[in-house]
Automatic annotation (TrEMBL):
GO terms for biological process: biological process involved in interaction with host; glycerol metabolic process; response to hypoxia; response to nitric oxide; triglyceride biosynthetic process. It comes from Rhodococcus opacus PD630. Its EC number is 2.3.1.20. It comes from the Bacteria. It catalyses: an acyl-CoA + a 1,2-diacyl-sn-glycerol = a triacyl-sn-glycerol + CoA. Keywords: Acyltransferase, Glycerol metabolism, Lipid biosynthesis, Lipid metabolism, Transferase. InterPro entries: Acyl_transf_WS/DGAT, O-acyltransferase_WSD1-like, O-acyltransferase_WSD1_C, O-acyltransferase_WSD1_N. Belongs to the long-chain O-acyltransferase family. Pathway: Glycerolipid metabolism; triacylglycerol biosynthesis; Lipid metabolism. This is Diacylglycerol O-acyltransferase. Residues 5-270 form the O-acyltransferase WSD1-like N-terminal domain. It is an enzyme of class 2 (transferase). Residues 327-469 form the O-acyltransferase WSD1 C-terminal domain. GO terms for molecular function: diacylglycerol O-acyltransferase activity.
Length: 474
């Protein structure tokens, strides 16, 4: 059976450009176990876990004449060794060399004639460590039918969890005529469905309108700001396909101390830390910073992350948030013009509180239910909202996804650190991804190589901004 790309997945697939490869990445660093972890062992593990993410054996096939969205089809010549690769740093490999390698790998687009993902085993890292870098196209990972491959190879214990043996055989590839006939049939069915939705809407307008209003609650702030132009900023410039990558490792306990002192949320503290770093970065560049200066951020942030104690307890029980219902995307003006760190935090906390009061979480099922008659712009107001309005709506994208607060393993090797690598959108020189794991908060900074040559300065200023808030809380 042919599966068609969703509207959002198709939009990400077609957004691919030479300067904006649309893949998400993840860098994980491990302590090498006593017996080591060979490339062959990792290859075997990945192949075993592919049954959990069947789309990772599928590739995108476009329909002739653009009659419909592309479809997922099994790769008849699937080659696991093409996707799982190995690389090595000159011993003893430094973290800086690892980050340079990640930047180069992030710069390369994926081969769209094959399944849209790659994984690299990076050996030779100093202090008896190795790294695994994965990248998957944004159209592939939707959080529902396809998870990121780096997630499914992780185990909560050193012992590798058993998996049922699977003999995978690719389904026969559909013919061109079959795809065209399916697209034409879908067009007819969609027209009939549209008339049915219209009759339902006219028959019960009040009910439908009420549901629509509730559904768009979480993106009300985005809609109101859609006609506003983001402040001018060096964060917005023409970018190339080449990248720089930097990381920041901080302790989750520090954010909790600040949260307890000022009665806010951990997410508020994170955004205040980023605000301070952006303020000092602008000053380091000689940019004019007045009291009213702001940096507008698009924040597709997990609601689950606002309660770290619940996050800890749930992760220990092996419970995971449903990504379809736990993500809230909104815009916030970071008060970079405010010189006082505590006042910056207060501004952020009030803005976040206002957002929480006026928004509601929207599940994917609700959006699907409304898609028959809702405005087309509603489809863009999800976790992937950033891609549609990047040039005029915001300066910076900040993503935050909570991870488990207990150790994870790959083939008996304990994961020490995990850094997200968010894609750069058009004219966006920097994206900041965060994730919490095992008592720490990890920042991954993906930046344009030319426009953001000083991304390491931003990384250093994130440390300074956090320390400034810690000093104030003491």
């Amino acid at each position: 059976m042919v599966t068609r790309l969703t509207t959002q997945d198709a939009s990400f697939y077609f957004l691919e450009a030479s300067s904006t490869p649309m893949h998400v990445g993840s860098l994980a660093i491990f302590r090498k176990p006593r017996n080591g972890l060979s490339y062959e062992e990792l290859l075997s593990l990945v192949e075993e876990r592919l049954s959990l993410v069947p789309r990772y054996r599928q590739k995108v096939r476009e329909v002739a004449l653009g009659l419909s969205r592309p479809v997922w089809v099994d790769d008849q010549d699937f080659d696991i060794e093409y996707h799982v690769r190995r690389s090595a740093l000159p011993k003893p490999g430094s973290d800086a060399q690892l980050h340079d390698l990640v930047a180069r790998l992030t710069s390369r687009p994926l081969d769209n004639t094959r399944p849209l993902w790659e994984m690299y085993l990076v050996e030779g890292l100093s202090n008896n460590r190795f790294a695994i870098f994965t990248k998957s196209h944004s159209s592939l990972v939707d959080g529902e039918t396809a998870l990121e491959i780096g997630q499914v190879i992780l185990d909560p214990a050193k012992t590798r969890r058993p998996m049922a043996e699977e003999l995978w055989m690719p389904s026969p590839a559909p013919s061109e005529s079959t795809l065209i006939a399916g697209a034409l049939a879908e067009m007819v069915a969609r027209r009939a469905k549209g008339w049915a939705a219209l009759r339902m809407t006219l028959g019960d307008m009040a009910s439908a309108l009420g549901e629509t209003v509730r559904a768009v609650g979480k993106v009300a702030a985005v809609v109101r700001t859609a006609t506003q132009v983001a402040p001018a900023s060096p964060l917005n410039a023409t970018i190339s396909r080449n990248r720089r990558f930097a990381v920041v490792k901080t302790e989750l306990g520090d954010y909790r101390k600040i949260r307890a002192q000022y009665g806010c949320e951990v997410n508020d503290v994170i955004l205040a830390v980023v605000s301070g770093a952006m303020r000092y970065w602008l000053l380091s560049r000689g940019e004019p910073v007045a009291e009213s200066t702001t940096v507008r951020a698009m924040v597709p942030m997990s609601v689950y992350a606002t309660d770290p104690e619940a996050d800890d307890e749930a992760s220990r029980r092996g419970e995971w948030a449903d990504p379809r219902s736990m993500v809230s995307s909104f815009l916030i003006d970071l008060p970079v013009g405010e010189p006082n760190a505590v006042v910056r935090l207060s501004h952020v906390a009030h803005a976040m509180e206002a957002h929480a009061k006026q928004s509601q979480r929207v599940t994917a099922e609700t959006l699907v239910r409304l898609s028959g008659f809702a405005p087309a712009t509603l489809h863009a107001m999800s976790a992937r909202v950033a891609s549609s309005f990047s040039q005029r709506m915001f300066n910076l994208m900040i993503t935050n996804a909570p991870g488990p607060q207990l150790p994870l393993y790959v083939g008996g090797a304990r994961m020490l650190e995990m850094y997200p690598v968010s894609p750069l959108l058009k004219n966006q020189t920097l994206s900041i991804g965060l994730t919490s794991y095992d008592g720490n908060v990890y920042y991954g900074l993906n930046a344009d190589r030319d426009a953001m040559a000083d991304v390491d300065v931003v990384a250093a200023l994130l440390y300074e901004s956090l320390e400034e808030l810690l000093d104030a809380s003491r």
